[in-house]
Please model this.
Amino acid sequence: MNKDLAIRELTEKFGTRLNVSAADRERHGQDESSHAVMMPDAVLYAAGTGDVVAAIEICARHRMPVIPFGAGTSLEGHVAAPHGGLSLDLSMMNRVLAVHENDLDVRVEAGVTRQALNAYLRDKGLFFPVDPGSECTLGGMVATRASGTNAVRYGTMREQVLSLKVVTATGEVIETGNRARKSAAGYDLTHLFVGSEGTLGVVTEMTLRVYGRPEKLMAGVCRFPNLQAAIDTVIATIQLGLPVARIELLDELSVKAVNAYSGLDHTEMPTLFLEFHGSAPAVDAEVSSFSRLAKEFGGSAIEFADRQEDINKLWHARHQLYYATRAMAPGKHVLTTDVCVPISRLGDCMLETRHDLDESPVMGTMLGHVGDGNFHTILLADPNNNGEMRELERLHERMVTRAIEMGGTCTGEHGIGLGKIKYLEKEKGPAVHLMRQIKAALDPIGIMNPGKLLPNPSLGEEMDNQR
Amino acid sequence: MNKDLAIRELTEKFGTRLNVSAADRERHGQDESSHAVMMPDAVLYAAGTGDVVAAIEICARHRMPVIPFGAGTSLEGHVAAPHGGLSLDLSMMNRVLAVHENDLDVRVEAGVTRQALNAYLRDKGLFFPVDPGSECTLGGMVATRASGTNAVRYGTMREQVLSLKVVTATGEVIETGNRARKSAAGYDLTHLFVGSEGTLGVVTEMTLRVYGRPEKLMAGVCRFPNLQAAIDTVIATIQLGLPVARIELLDELSVKAVNAYSGLDHTEMPTLFLEFHGSAPAVDAEVSSFSRLAKEFGGSAIEFADRQEDINKLWHARHQLYYATRAMAPGKHVLTTDVCVPISRLGDCMLETRHDLDESPVMGTMLGHVGDGNFHTILLADPNNNGEMRELERLHERMVTRAIEMGGTCTGEHGIGLGKIKYLEKEKGPAVHLMRQIKAALDPIGIMNPGKLLPNPSLGEEMDNQR
Model:
């Protein structure tokens, strides 16, 4: 890699939009997790697809890594620069390019946040359902195959993306799909790029599905005497095929964290946060079916949030849970787990995990998108206490092993990044070999976000040897 | 390619399960379309994944093409053998391996037909929704990214496949996913193989989503004074977000064909075949919303099929439409088109197409999965009349060009095969270059179903030069 020459050429091309200040590089070398800061050599604020093409061409010529950056809210070190390189910040590419109300799709640049898109859509009676906890960009959400609280009904990013504009590792611009709802034309490049974590190319624009706001929406909370009762209710709900829009579980400690952080006074018991969408009769039927189930398992009556303001407050509190847990013990190292299992195994998986946490000296909240079989623990350890730090890894390893044995995955929605590389091969076995072949074919010189997603032997390491 | 040596080794390995009779080769060299017969050199009836591995290893050693074969019901020449080779018939691999009722998923071998799966699931209160018109295998449906009448509500094969067991072009066995409903672990190999038409590897087993039978199901027909009224009703239904389970349009000629072929007496007017699924109050609300819309556009009241037997008859007739159209003019060459456009353009697209057909000397029915924006014309021409044959191509070209200009695709569900290769580059542009890179990476010697899906320069042609 000829870094100095690359930076000189980038500066000539982009002027002050290329930044090499330590502060900016540091901000771009870390995400919202506790992964170590690994600074890029420079940061480019791209203004359009043309900039991305020009930057990749320069970087390719000098074998300089390119690390796409949206809002830096990932949780597995996705934006860190273990081999240096150029952080390609797409946050200025934040235009909504088209809203096709009649087709329920939109075209946006990759730097638009999910919140900005929903603000834009509000007065059109439309919404975009995928909602990770953070203020993240849609490009980043494509990169990590993100999901959130609505996935149980609307699906994850995988189900929302109709087409992507991608700049490849060789600087070619392609469009992976079109606006048709289905197509059988050739290999599914759209889904190959969704979840590829910036390792195959840079997504600069996308066409997404959006939805009409439901005729009726009801949201509320339902409390349970213990975790098992709450989980059993969730499993029965899904197995009955009730099309709940959101069904989120918070354990006691999570409720406590939310209360403290968001100034609320929820009773500190295992709690489901719920939302129902549909026609008025459909929602009424669903609510009554759910209530019957919950009662059977010892749950409370649903306490409904009446005003839209209260509903917003409810979900805002849920979305803040990662920050709320961190705030319980400032300065601690945080490890977020993200396993996802078939719904019939969710009870065993969560209760065995809760048992592990109860036996462990480290503290952790447990919460999740339980309708999908996906839950998180947010584990806290003293970074100066080697025993505690090792304990985090031990717990994580046990959870992942358990999830895989139950037919599940090490990550439901956060992605592999740096943090879960060690588990990819364990989960995918020889399929990782195919992933490597695809990576080598589409990024032959290995400049796209090297060191992420794929385990050793990584192209990133080969690049190191070439320095 | 050393064909004789390959066949000798295959015979030694598989005995009488390898068949080189002309009759069997001919049957395996054609699908249900009018594409020319192109015979393979031999047919192997595989009994399990191990057979597929052994066969691919032998074929790879001798550079002999491998063409996966399910039921031979594709419509774009997918199973033909333009470069000879081994037809790998998976129809004996027809076991349902597991039903996880509590997780709403099943594990099946690739040779199970959709009808056999549904017969197996019936007494468990479950069903599998994807339903192309023919008696096809689930492996073939994966290969072509098939859909059908339920896709408007349940999605296509793309949405149903949780994981695939694949034998790669080098004989490696991989599992692409697991039973979790979502995962952010690595590249999405599942969706790369869905729709890859046997050109990247052979799918031998799969995990599929299944669904609980709805609490209430209503099906019926609604007639319209003209095509425009029917299409406008469909567009309004989708834009209103009514979650219809099925909404299928038949033009007058299609209704006539169905009546003649299936011995029915539907009034010969543009007709929607409809089905509603859900809780009783939800279905009632939907039916009344739909009826209001249909009436606005001049549609009849819905004529409901009361008994399950009548409902089955209705959909059986719809599924037979390809055969019904062929039967109107036996011996004619058939060309089936398959464009899919954004719903807001469906009216323009269908009406302009109808106009083209009305002006044309060739006959064609028009029908479709209109809720997805997808429709077919089934065009008939005298194979000995060059003018008519050219006219089919002219009409097809016009339809595809129009669909692409409207933001759509040349194929919603039938795939590329041989028949639509000429349109892939027109639709996908430089993205085809990436498809070629992926093909070259995963099938470096080009033995997997050569000559299909990708336009020239094709690996199949390179193989020809090596003979």
In short: The domain at 216-321 of chain A is CATH 3.30.70.3450 (Alpha-Beta Plaits). Chain A has four domains: 3-91, 96-212, 216-321, 329-418.
